[in-house]
Design a protein that fits this description.
The protein has about 160 residues and is an alpha+beta fold. It contains six helices and six strands; from the N terminus they run H-H-E-H-H-E-H-E-E-E-E-H. Strands 1-2-6-5-4-3 form a six-stranded antiparallel β-sheet.
Length: about 160
């Protein structure tokens, strides 16, 4: 009986883990919704690349930046710099997407033409999204995924 219960818990854990790995991040969803209509440039730094970065010899890298990097699994950077109307439209669409998914994304901070959204699993921060309208005509989105501490946002703002 104990083996059966252990096996059931193991299978449930693997199913939850597989589902979490298959989750779509904010940037992926955004590109799926709006990528065809706009000329978005997307750059992805994969988990494998993050591992390679962490393996490099630390030369002038501070322990703070190394600690921050160790918490990041992947990075996606979306940009579009055409005209002010399109950039503002893309910024508004990002805000609308976050608002439509309020159960998933919390607004961490807002400022003039800049929003930060976070996603958590329980107490653990698993995604951070920075959306910015720069100079009125360039749209930026920085999407970080990983297993990040509560101090992560403060650390990332210092770098």
């Amino acid at each position: 009986m104990k083996r059966f219960l252990t096996l059931c818990l193991l299978i449930a854990g693997l199913a939850v883990s597989a589902a979490a790995k298959g989750e779509e991040d904010f940037a992926s969803r955004y590109v799926a919704l709006y990528g065809d209509a706009h000329k978005l440039s997307c750059t992805t730094i994969s988990p494998q690349m993050m591992e390679r970065i962490m393996e490099l010899e630390p030369d002038d890298q501070t322990s703070l930046s190394r600690e921050v990097l160790s918490q990041i699994k992947s990075i996606r950077i979306l940009t579009c710099g055409t005209d002010s109307t399109e950039a503002k439209d893309l910024f508004d669409k990002a805000e609308q997407l976050a608002n439509r998914n309020r159960r998933r994304y919390d607004t961490y901070a807002t400022a003039d033409d800049q929003n930060i959204y976070t996603r958590r699993h329980g107490d653990q921060l698993v995604e951070c999204v920075l959306v910015k309208l720069k100079g009125g005509n360039t749209f930026y989105m920085l999407n970080l995924t990983g297993t990040m501490s509560d101090d992560f946002l403060q650390q990332i703002l210092k770098i």
